[in-house]
Sequence to fold (498 residues):
Amino acid sequence: MNRLAILKKMIPVCFLSVVLMGNHEPLKTDREPKQGSPNIVIIFMDDMGYGDPECYGGGPYHTPNINALAAEGLRFTNFYAAQAVCTASRSALLTGCYPTRIGLSGAIDHSSKIALNPDEQTIAEILKPRGYRSAIIGKWHLGSRLPHMPLQQGFDEFFGLPYSNDMWPVDYDGQPWKDTSFWRSKYPQLPLYEGEKVVKLIKTLQDQDQLTTSYTERAVRFIHENKNRPFFLYLAHSMVHVPLGVSAKFRGKSGAGMFGDVMEEVDWSVGEVMKALKENGVDDNTLVIFSSDNGPWLTFGNHAGNTGGLREGKGTAWDGGLKVPCIMRWPGKIKAGTIANPLTTTMDVLPTLASICQADLPVKKIDGVNISSILFGKPDADPRENFVYYYDKNNLKAIRNNAWKLVFPCISQTYGKPGAIGHDGYPGKYGSDSVHLALYHLTIDPGEDRDVKDQYPEIVAQLTAIADQYRKTIGDGLTHQVGTEVRPAAVVDPQKDK
Fold:
């Protein structure tokens, strides 16, 4: 037995165990519920950190509805976004692919020359042949011009924004940018879409205050209108991304500042969705997934969230940027009050839903794995071994294998320099760090501050070899390798009229 195999056996059983509470017998489950194809609700937050929900240690605000999801379902402790930035992360959730595999990176805006390629299949597209009606409510961020909008990627309804809520010509104080030469001043007004038509322009901070309520009301309506057929609801909130917006019914109520107010309103939104499922008699036949696109944007200080003690945040390849909260609830199928510790990612959602809903997987290769064995409590379920941390355009900055994380030499954004943290809606100024080769054991060192590469050279060598395979197939800008399996993003003309 080699040293890596021995060390894997030494990893504490609490890391490899799927269930920490209740008995360990798997729930009996059919592949498809007796009621028919299950409804799917994905509530996807924006920039919500691993430590933001109260059930993950957040506060002093309160999140009783998110807490209830955890108490009634399965809470993940090693769940990762595919990249620590908006467009890349959302493409991974909806396609089951590493963003670099499908040519996407960063956070695209109205002027972007790339978008999600229509040849890539989304969750909505694989569910459509199974009779699902699908809606995205909230933030899309995978293309803002036809034919790269949600209705061209399998969704039947779209109500929301084409990209992030800070991509508008408004300064941090809520006034138009006075410096008209500054690039942010050249953004168009923020468009709110209904289908393929702009129905409102979001021009002020007061307009932003209504987004959570508007999204929630529309989500509840969608559930009511589709209670008699299988549906997929993708509720992609704009919050808690800056600029923070909160309605009058929650403003100043949390006692924990603006961020606390926003957290309590998005928690209310979760409660309204759950109430709608119950009132329409579809709660028992609905799988609800709650998660976030990446970690907190720490440069915004008290308007940003909480990593739960993880290193760095959004915009980095450290765990504070990619490790996110995730809760899955399905009464009678997922055992209530349980905890899952195995390595899992947003890319795993698509193949898991395909299995549960008896849908076909995408024709093209994906990177997600089916984690339904974890959901349904199979003893020792641990279907994913590896995860690679990409950032920038396609720089492979780290690799995780079980509990081990190997970090490669690179330049990283950091929030640890003087002046990096802002206040009351204003950002600080990023710093940069030179990162050196380092090895971390994340079970005993989740903060990534104790490098043990000198003690375990065999693990460094084995993880490097695994990373080399990813470099060959999906590329690596740091070592100047173009992947053999990379597929192009769609090319768009930013000057073309909608």
